[in-house]
Amino acid sequence: ANPYARIFWEQCLQPVIARRQGIDLLHMMAYVSPVVAVTPTVVTVHDLSFLRSPERFRPANRTYLSLFTGLSCQRARRVIAVSEHTKQDVMKVYGLPSEKVDVVYSGLDPHFARPAPEAIAEFRRAHGLPEKFILYLGTIEPRKNLSTLIRAYAKVRPAGVKLVCAGGRGWMVEDVFQTVEELRLSREVIFPGFLPSEDLPFWYSAAQLFVYPSSYEGFGLPVIEALACGAPTITTDASSLPEAAGDAALLVPPDDIAALAETISRVLADSNLRSELAARGPAQAARFTWQDCARDTANTYARALGLPELAQN
C-alpha cells in the first residue's frame, strides 16, 4: 500500500534481519534485492516492461526498478525468469549468461476447470451476467491494450454480445474510458471491477470468447486460466503469450485492430471453431502445475547453494 515503506523494508530492514537470523539464501520474489545484502540471493524477474514500455509506468516505480533490477540480477547467485521470453530479455538487457537464469513457469490453481452446465447457468442468473459476452480479465493498465480491444469490438459490433472488461483499475486508465465514450459504447462495454478468484471459472466458462490483447507479458496467467475452463481464447503473438497459449488459442499482432476484429468475428460466427478451441484448452493449461513450479524453484535453490538437485518426475 505504501511503496516508500516497502522500499525502506526491502533495502534497509530486510538485509539486517536476514543476517541476524542466519538465513542461508534470500529469495526476492519481485525484481529487487537489498543492495547491502551479504546473504546470498535468488531474484525472480517477471518481465522487463518498465524498460520495454517505460511510458506506461509511473516515473517513481519505473526509476526504482530500472536502477535496482539489473544490479540485483548481477549480484544474485541465480535468477528465475517466469518464461523463456523473459529469460531471453534478462540475458540480453543485463548481459547474464544462460546458465545463470532458470525458467520457472507459474502453476495453475486446480479450481480452474469448467463447472457443470447447470452451475454455470445458475451463476449467470445469480450474478446477472449477459446472455452472450466477450470477456477480458486483468488489471486495467496501458500495456494490457484494452483500448485496442474496445476499438476492435466497435468494428464488429456483434448483435446481442456485450464486452465485459473485468479487473481492478491500475494506472493511466483514462484512455480506456475515453475510448468507450468516444465510440458511444457505454451500454455495450461493462466494467464489473475486481472479481473474486473463486468466481473466475464461472466467468471464463460463461463467456462466448476470452480475449487477452496485451502487448507485453512476463507470462500471461489469465490465458491459461481461460484455457483450463474451456473458453475459446484469442491473445497476441507478443512476448511470452505464445508460450502460455501453445496451439490452443488464436494469436494476433498486439496493435492490429483490424486483425483482432476479424478474428473476433470469425470465432463468434463459427461454432465448430469455438468447440475446437474449447477442447484444446485444458490440455495446454495442464502443462503448468504448482508441483513443477515448486520442484524447479527448489532446484534453483540447490544450484545457488551447491546442493544436489531434485529428480525430474
Features:
13 helices; 4-stranded parallel sheet; alpha/beta; single chain; 6-stranded parallel sheet; 46% helix; 313 residues; globular
Structure description:
- The chain is of the alpha/beta class.
- Helices cover 46% and strands 13% of the residues.
- The chain contains 13 helices and ten strands.
- A six-stranded parallel beta sheet has the order 7-6-5-8-9-10, with helices on both faces. A four-stranded parallel beta sheet has the order 1-2-3-4, with helices on both faces.
- It starts with a helix and ends in an 8-residue tail after the last helix.
Q: How would you summarize this macromolecular structure in one to three sentences?
A:
Helices cover 46% and strands 13% of the residues.
**What percentage of amino acids are in beta strands?**
5-15%
Q: How many beta strands in the DSSP annotation?
A: 10
Order of SSEs: HEEHHEHEHEHEHEHEHEHEHHH
Strands side by side in the biggest sheet: 7-6-5-8-9-10
| Low-confidence runs | none
- The dominant shape is globular
Helicity level: 40-55%
Largest sheet geometry: 6 strands, parallel
Report how far apart the termini are.
Answer: 40 Å
Total of helices: 13
Spell out the blueprint of helices and strands:
Blueprint lengths: L2 H18 L5 E3 L12 E5 L3 H4 L6 H17 L2 E4 L2 H11 L6 E3 L13 H11 L5 E5 L8 H11 L5 E5 L7 H9 L6 E5 L6 H7 L2 E4 L8 H8 L4 E4 L4 H5 L4 E3 L4 H13 L1 H15 L4 H16 L8
Parallel strand pairs: 1-2, 2-3, 3-4, 5-6, 5-8, 6-7, 8-9, 9-10
Helix pairs in contact: 5-8, 6-7, 6-11, 9-12
